[in-house]
Design brief:
Elements lengths: L1 H6 L1 H5 L8 H9 L7 H12 L25 E7 L17 E8 L18 H8 L3 E8 L3 H5 L2 H18 L3 E6 L7 H18 L4 E6 L19 E4 L11 E2 L16 H11 L6 E6 L1 E7 L6 E2 L7 E4 H6 L10 E4 L4 E8 L2 E6 L3 H13 L4 E5 L9 H9 L9 E5 L13 E6 L6 E10 L6 E5 L8 E5 L7 E3 L5 E6 L8 E9 L7 E5 L11 E5 L13 E3 L5 E3 L6
Parallel strand pairs: 1-2, 1-15, 2-3, 3-4, 4-5, 5-6, 6-8, 8-15
Antiparallel strand pairs: 7-10, 9-11, 9-14, 12-13, 13-14, 16-23, 17-22, 18-21, 18-23, 19-20, 19-22, 24-25, 26-27
Helix pairs in contact: 7-8, 11-12
Length: 569
């Protein structure tokens, strides 16, 4: 048996499917085994990764909701695939997870029934553990082909819907996740109607239940009718990965936060703007992040490099890269692409050049900053367990998406085109800078260019756009160096549907102590020899004015001014 497992080691890293998502790619690989016991998956994973499961040290492994940090209202939604087996979930940090979604119920398009023999929803130990730890549980239903067959069959749709209701009730679960990939544009109306009816039946049958839906990183066919879905679907999760995939001609990041190239500018920040512009409510939108990377054999070592083809492209999990048993993923080989905010490894193997684009905890924190800045509902993780044995990615969640989050006192800010690319079309973005303990904010712009009269940036002196307006800026008229008069400053910008410019880049610094002296101006009449009224105006950009003092003087007969001559002053 060991020999059999070892012989398939090659294929876990070199799967050559064209134009497929990583979910479909990995699902088709694992579906060959049809294991029904979790212990069989444990053995397979041991052979595939070359490592046994190992419980993390107690001080790193948080299996109960006892941490001082708790999720701050953001959802941390993680998919748990059936091939993870029976032990990986023991290293999940349950206090940092809001939802566990068991993957997957494979929809038979003709009947609506499940065709995945490994779907062990009713017995999964991970589902049991999640529920015991107060984490919401759901399962994922997938359909990757024959969409018209299913969406035009009343019997198949009714059977699927009733099966979902039964499965949710049987586990005392919270809902279901719909992941229908590759939908053709011709099925847009049918899919919309199906989702409306499906959500209605699930909600009516199980009060308080939730229906979530996977959104493509790029909706190439425009199949998601968000205006007619947003009031029915409870959560929308962007699959923020596979922007570059096995079939890409250019080797690039799985999940570029900002545009990796200038010609092909699709990235996570653009996907967020697109779906918000389509009408998805911010609190219903989650950003999916990958716990895996894509490795390419390339014709060169510089960026961007040409891929040698899908036959030499592979999926690498965070665990495999982090353990570095090959020696290729060393610190010496690690680089950082500032354009897309993505780490990557550049190395030679067998005389060929390879590049692996893989997030680390630092780049994940940058992605979570965007989730916070844009007030999204949270994140989705594909997939839980791909970091098994390491805590860095859990730490990133802890630092950015919990009650322990602290906005830094000094940081760089820029539009959502990133530090080096133009901003995107049809963006409306609002971001508040309000570090804890700040007295006021200094915001210094070192780059500014918007399309004159069409794209505009506004600054507000306070925590929202209802705060006093500092100014509105367009063209090349930079705000320059700004000091707020409150502990917060809010940035808002809006772009139209064409003509992009470089946007803005700025650095903010919060002041936690008042180092700027207050100012006073006194307004009096011109020279007069009779009694007059003086107006005093006091201002302070720091902590405010606590006390004011004034002195009333009179001109004495001794030819000098004195204050309160009878009692002193």
């Amino acid at each position: 048996m060991k020999k059999f497992f070892t012989s398939i080691l090659f294929f876990i890293f070199f799967i050559t499917l064209n134009a497929q998502s990583v979910l479909q790619e990995q699902k088709e690989f694992y579906n060959k085994y049809n294991f029904t016991k979790e212990s069989d998956w444990d053995k397979l994973q041991e052979q595939l990764t070359g490592t046994k499961f190992k419980i993390l040290p107690k001080n790193d492994n948080i299996n109960q909701r006892s941490s001082a940090c708790s999720l701050n209202g953001r959802r941390v939604y993680g998919w748990h695939p059936y091939w993870n087996g029976s032990t990986v979930h023991n290293n999940y940090q349950w206090n940092l997870l809001s939802d566990l979604c068991y993957f997957d119920y494979t929809v038979n398009p003709t009947t609506g029934t499940n065709s995945n023999a490994s779907f062990a929803w009713s017995t999964s130990s991970a589902v049991t553990a999640a529920k015991a730890n107060g984490v919401k549980i759901s399962f994922c239903a997938t359909l990757f082909s024959s969409h018209s067959t299913f969406l035009t069959s009343t019997t198949a749709k009714n059977t699927f819907t009733q099966n979902c209701i039964n499965l949710i009730k049987a586990r005392g679960a919270n809902g279901v996740n719909i992941d229908f990939e590759g939908l053709p544009s011709t099925q847009k109306a049918n899919f919309t109607t199906f989702m409306q009816q499906f959500c209605q039946k699930i909600h009516d049958s199980i009060p308080g239940s939730e229906v979530s839906m996977a959104l493509y990183a790029v909706d190439w066919n425009g199949v998601f009718d968000i205006p007619n879905l947003k009031n029915h679907v409870d959560l929308f999760i962007i699959m923020g990965y596979d922007y570059y995939y096995s079939g890409s001609t250019i080797a690039g990041p799985t999940d570029p936060l900002y545009s990796f190239e200038t010609g092909y500018n699709y990235c996570m920040s653009k996907s967020i703007s697109y779906y918000l512009n389509q009408g998805v409510p911010q609190n219903k939108l989650l950003l999916g992040v990958p716990y895996y990377g894509r490795q390419y054999r390339t014709t060169g070592s510089t960026l961007p490099a040409t891929s040698s083809g899908s036959a030499y492209s592979s999926t690498v999990t965070y665990k495999v890269a982090r353990s570095n048993t090959s020696g290729n993923y060393s610190a010496a080989n690690k680089k950082f692409d500032v354009n897309s905010y993505t780490p990557y490894y550049n190395f030679l193997s067998g005389g060929f050049n390879y590049q692996l684009f893989m997030d680390d905890s630092s780049s994940m924190r940058e992605r979570y900053d965007i989730v916070n800045q844009r007030s999204l509902g949270g994140i989705g993780i594909w997939t839980l367990g791909y970091d098994d044995g390491y805590t860095e990615l859990w730490n990133a969640i802890n630092d950015k998406l919990t009650s322990c989050y602290a906005q830094p006192c000094t940081d760089s800010v820029f539009d959502y085109g990133g530090p080096n690319r133009n901003y995107h079309d049809k963006e409306i973005a609002t971001y508040t800078i309000a570090p804890s303990g700040a007295s006021y904010i200094n915001l210094n712009f070192n780059q500014f260019e918007f399309e004159t009269g069409y794209d505009t940036l506004w600054l507000y002196d306070g925590p929202s756009t209802a705060s006093p307006l500092i100014g509105a800026y367009t063209g090349t008229t930079s705000p320059g160096n700004i000091n707020s008069t409150s502990p917060a400053i809010t940035i808002k910008y809006k772009t139209d549907g064409a003509t992009n410019k470089v946007g803005y880049k700025a650095k903010y610094t919060c002041q936690t102590s008042d180092v700027i002296a207050p100012t006073t101006s006194v307004t009096t009449p011109t020279w007069t020899t009779t009694n007059f009224t003086a107006n005093f105006t006091d201002a302070d950009v720091g902590t405010g004015i606590a006390q004011r003092f004034y002195s009333a003087d009179e001109y004495s007969t001794a030819a000098y001014w004195r204050s309160n001559k009878a009692n002193g002053f």
